[in-house]
Amino acid sequence: MLLCRATTVSLLFFSTSAAAKPFAKIPWKHRSKIIQESQAALLDYLHTTRALPFIYADLISRNSHQCLWSVVSKIPFSPHNFSCSFQRFLRYHPINELDFLLESIGLICDDESETARDILPKNTFFISDWKRFDVVCALGGMGFPWKKLGLLCRDDCSVFKVDPSHLERRIEEIKGFGFNGVSVISIGLAFPQVLYSNADGLLGDLKILMLDYDLLSGVDENVDALLEVCEKIKLFYDLGCEMGKVGELMGRSKHIFIEYSKEHLIGKIEYFCRLNVGRVQVGLLLLSRPEIFGFDLGDQVISVSGFLAHFGMEEEELKSLEQNYPHVFGRNKLENVPSVMRAMDIGEWFFERLQNGDPALLTAHTMPSGEDLDKHYEEGLRKLENKRTRAYMKTKLDFIHSLGFGENRFAVKALSQMHSSRSELQQRFDILLSCGVEYSRLCAILKFAPRVLNQNPGQLEKKIEFFCNEMGASLQYLDVFPGYLCHDLEKRIKPRFRFHKWLKEQGYCKKNYSMATIVATSEQTFIARISRMNLAAAKMWEHLQK
Hints:
Blueprint: E1 8-11, H1 28-49, H2 54-62, H3 65-72, H4 82-92, H5 97-104, E2 107-110, H6 133-141, H7 164-175, H8 181-190, H9 200-212, H10 223-238, H11 247-252, H12 256-259, H13 262-273, H14 279-288, E3 301-303, H15 304-310, H16 315-324, E4 331-333, H17 337-343, H18 347-356, H19 361-364, H20 375-385, H21 390-402, H22 409-417, H23 422-434, H24 439-448, H25 457-469, H26 489-506, H27 515-520, H28 523-533, H29 535-545
Helix pairs in contact: 1-2, 1-4, 2-5, 3-5, 8-10, 21-22, 23-25, 28-29
Signal peptide: 1-19
Family: Belongs to the mTERF family.
Protein name: mTERF domain-containing protein, mitochondrial
């Protein structure tokens, strides 16, 4: 495939396209031999025919299975003399060497992008014609693992625009902070910007954490182990923590970067980000209260009212919340607490309690047996157990609770009226959020009209757009008329609204009818109302509907 247009550079390590196994179509008993022979033939081609230094030709041939298979698949398979067939193919069919090179360093190319346009030449086959190849070689010569060089393009490809001599000087400058060679390589792979721009704030933080607080003593002295630690550190900068300002904070919490996996840290970060508070605040909270990472925030069941009281909510305020958000109260899992708080619009209050109080309150809540049991919910669960689709229904019920609905009659009602898979329901919920509907309002809408999430995702967006732009209504009106989202846009909402608008312009309609009155009434009632205004207009409407 020619690099004849601008391409997007993506990390092969995390690409789903890399999941397709090359050589899978070769019979297994011949597969190992064919792979070895094709790699040897490619090595010979790159080194002997294309005069590429042996070390680079070897690295490319051993680490480009996808591209190699794309060539092998064009050659008629034969267990005998395959190497000769491969060499003959290369003799008459030159390959795009850049594809092989990029895959070998952990990159794939697809689609259009401004990012890669400056470094990937157009209409170029050969590595020797790529001016940036010397940078790749220089980085490999400095000790950067060849297969991980693609990580340097995580955000952009600026590092490949740097002169090799500047890279050498920059690495010496980084070592001047006190880092050894392994540390410099790991830091560079996790934070490529240190190799081509001023990142003294970041390096200062890392010096405090790794050297002053001696983090390195708890990590194996190899690139993979230290890179894993740097990836965990990067999570907090990705939240928005200011480089050069959090070194001490990280140092005092250094054990979290050693004891917990990256997935564990991500899980906790996402948990508190679901409160919809500032991401920087989440990062600073977790760094200042590292004990939170040791809490099990999973399947423990809580009483929502008891949990809020446990966090110090006043009785009067609690009663007010129970009256305004009855669908949230009852039992729920601790893992759903962020959604529970957002569903009552008290995410910031809860986060402040965590910041200023004892985070251990999260797991210290004990619920007396029998507290907040809902008979309607229990009855609904018994009916669910008798259904053949109980596993499917249980998944939907878990989704409803994950939104913030407690174990109560409203959850049972929603379960009976939502008729799509969990992933589809989540997609539609997220679309409505992206359209500007507030989280707590959306949950209240679903309390009254769960069928909203049965609508086509594209139609939901169009209904909201028409609602706000042409009808001139506020999204808050959905609190009064949530059923609007359940009506057909083209067959009911648009024609009725526009006809009523025309009636007013003509002076036939003297009253201001509500949107619910216009859209939700039956066709018979709608025609009768128009007839009272003007009989000819009613006949015109009936004609238009035919």
